[in-house]
Structure formats: structure tokens, C-alpha cells
């Protein structure tokens, strides 16, 4: 379904990362992928995972808070790939203390960091990718229900996800004339590194099992398949959307 497509993946930390699930699905569908990693501490992990796609898989460091890292990534992509069709944004961070107490106590700095890493980065990466997406493209970002309804303790991350979803719509408008589509997948809770250690995370899974129409959240394989659909030409008229892969939880009022 993605044969001949070239892609870049941001947000692999380990084998449980949603980015890795979508990368594997893109790879199976025939795409050729490059990967970035946040910092040296994750290089080995990503090397090992990306290496399973071939020893020559392109791997680059990219801390999305650094303009020079982003510039280097797309400069190298231009040199090595020449063009680009797919970009996955699967990156989020808020300082731990901002996810613990009450939203009202969010510091200016925690608010800034959460928005810089989790929302602004999509705009910066889309701008970097645009000159290479000369044959059109598909940009996919990961969101969560806390963008639209209050999920206790998700706090400033919910506000940043609202910004990510709105940014998706404005980017879709700007990039549409170039046949570049921009969409979000809003995933139900997944047991990844970013979710582990969050107090009450297991209760949240139980809540989906009790209340979602499908009596569960989602699997990494299902996120991969939705990511592949959004990347494919079957989704050629879909842009600026938030697609829920959450067992149907989002439709419920009670
Ligand atoms: P994860 O920890 O595997 O992925 C988060 C990634 O963000 C990591 O690879 C990390 O290196 C990267 N990152 C953080 N700060 C960065 C920076 N400054 N520069 C570059 N990269 C940086 O966890 P995940 O659950 O796979 O999260 C991926 C995405 O999915 C996030 O956007 C998250 O909000 C979203 N999401 C997660 C869930 C869930 O329940 N796990 C549900 C819905 C949406
Ligand atoms: O987007 C996320 C989590 C993203 C995240 C996770 C961490 C943990 C470690 C962002 N920043 C940090 N900072 C850290 O220091 N999710 C959708 C998973 C998640 O996180 C929650 C959730 C859910 C669901 C936090 C509180 C309540 C629900």
C-alpha cells in the first residue's frame, strides 16, 4: 500500500512506542523509513529497532526543541532521500510535576515546555518537510482525548494536545494546495514509556474496559493499521482530521 514511499519517524524510544508500531506497519506496507531519536540515551534502542529494517537505515539525532537539529535532519534527508512522502510525529512531553497536581498550578515554564515539545514541534517539522514533499505527502501526529475533555491529571498536556489538533487543521489548510495532508490519530490509553508511572494508569485502562463501546482501548497493531491508511492514497481526501482509535470511548457522554 505504501510501496515507493519515503518516510521519517519521530518518537521511537523503545519497542513499546506508538511510533515503533506505526513504523513497523509503514515498513510492512512497503515504505522506506528514516528515524530520529531524542538524545544519546535513546540512540542504542532506536539503532537496534531500526536496524531490523536493514543495516543501512538512516538514523539521526533530533531534539525537537532545537531548530538546528531539525534543520540538520531535513538537510540530511534531502541529501540521502531527495524527497519525502510520510512524516510521523509521535512526540510529547510535559514536566512530571505538571501531570501530578492541579492544572491551575501549572508554571509558566512547564506550560511553555509542554507546548514547545508537544505542539509547536509539529509546525516546525511540517515546515522542514514541506520542500521535500514535492509529490504530495501525509503527516500523522498522535493525540489524546484529553485535548477536548478534562481528563484528571492530564492537565497541561491536554491543553498542548488541543493546540496540536488545532495546528493540524491550520497546517492542513496551508499544505493542502501542495497535496500534503495532515491528520491526528487520537489513541486510547496504551501502556508505553510515556504512560508508565502515571498514577492511576491501570484504572484508566479498566475504565475503558468498562465504558468504551468495544470494552477496550486499542492495540498497537490497530494504531499501525490506521497510520498506514492515513499514509496511503486511500485517504487522499482526508486532511485536518482527528481519527479516534479508542474502542469508541470518545462518543460516550456517560
Ligand atoms: P513514548 O515515550 O514511547 O514516546 C514519546 C516520545 O517522545 C519518545 O520517543 C521521546 O523520546 C519523544 N520526545 C520527548 N521529548 C522530545 C524532544 N524534546 N525531542 C524529540 N523527541 C522527544 O510514548 P508513546 O505513548 O508512544 O507516545 C507517543 C505519542 O503518542 C505522544 O504524542 C503521546 O502523547 C501520544 N499518545 C499516547 C497515548 C498513550 O496512552 N500512551 C495515548 C494517546 C496518545
Ligand atoms: O500523552 C500522554 C503522555 C505524555 C507524557 C508522559 C509523560 C510521563 C513522564 C508527557 N510528559 C510526560 N512527562 C514525564 O515526566 N498520554 C496520552 C498518556 C497519558 O498520560 C496521562 C494520562 C494518559 C492517558 C497523564 C495523566 C492522566 C492520563
Q: What this model shows, in words?
A:
This protein has one domain: NAD(P)-binding Rossmann-like Domain (Rossmann fold). Helix content is 41%, strand content 15%. It has 7 helices and 7 strands; from the N terminus they run βαβαβαβαβαβααβ. A 7-stranded parallel beta sheet has the order 3-2-1-4-5-6-7, sandwiched between helices. α4 (108-129) packs parallel to α5. The N and C termini lie far apart (38 Å). The mean pLDDT is 97. Bound molecules: nicotinamide-adenine-dinucleotide (NAD) and ligand 0WE. Nicotinamide-adenine-dinucleotide binds next to α1.
List how many beta strands DSSP finds. Answer: 7
**Largest sheet geometry:** 7 strands, parallel
> Segments where pLDDT lies below 50 for 5+ residues?
none
Give the count of helical stretches: 7
N-C termini distance = 38 Å
Amino acid at each position: 500500500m505504501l510501496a515507493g514511499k519515503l518516510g521519517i519517524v519521530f518518537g521511537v524510544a523503545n519497542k513499546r512506542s506508538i511510533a515503533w508500531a506505526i513504523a513497523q506497519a509503514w515498513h510492512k506496507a512497503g515504505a522506506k523509513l528514516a528515524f530520529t531519536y531524542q538524545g544519546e540515551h535513546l540512540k542504542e534502542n532506536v539503532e537496534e529497532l531500526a536496524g531490523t529494517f536493514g543495516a543501512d537505515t538512516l538514523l539521526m539525532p533530533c531534539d525537537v526543541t532545537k531548530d538546528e537539529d531539525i534543520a540538520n535532519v531535513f538537510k540530511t534527508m534531502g541529501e540521502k532521500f531527495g524527497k519525502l512522502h510520510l512524516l510521523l510525529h509521535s512526540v510529547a512531553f510535559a514536566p512530571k510535576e505538571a501531570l501530578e497536581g492541579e492544572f491551575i498550578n501549572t508554571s509558566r515554564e512547564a506550560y511553555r515546555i509542554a507546548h514547545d515539545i508537544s505542539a509547536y514541534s509539529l509546525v516546525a517539522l511540517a515546515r522542514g518537510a514541506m520542500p521535500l514533499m514535492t509529490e504530495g505527502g501525509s503527516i500523522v501526529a498522535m493525540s489524546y482525548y484529553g485535548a477536548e475533555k478534562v481528563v484528571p491529571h492530564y492537565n497541561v498536556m491536554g491543553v498542548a494536545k488541543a493546540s496540536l489538533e488545532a495546528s493540524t487543521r491550520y497546517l492542513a489548510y496551508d499544505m493542502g494546495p501542495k497535496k500534503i495532508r495532515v491528520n491526528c490519530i487520537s489513541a486510547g490509553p496504551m501502556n508505553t514509556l510515556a504512560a508508565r508511572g502515571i498514577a492511576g494508569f491501570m484504572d484508566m485502562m479498566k475504565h475503558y474496559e468498562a465504558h468504551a463501546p468495544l470494552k477496550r482501548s486499542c492495540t498497537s497493531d490497530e494504531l499501525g493499521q490506521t497510520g498506514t491508511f492515513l499514509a496511503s492514497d486511500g485517504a487522499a481526501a482526508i486532511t485536518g482530521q482527528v481519527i479516534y482509535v479508542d474502542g469508541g470511548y470518545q462518543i460516550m457522554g456517560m
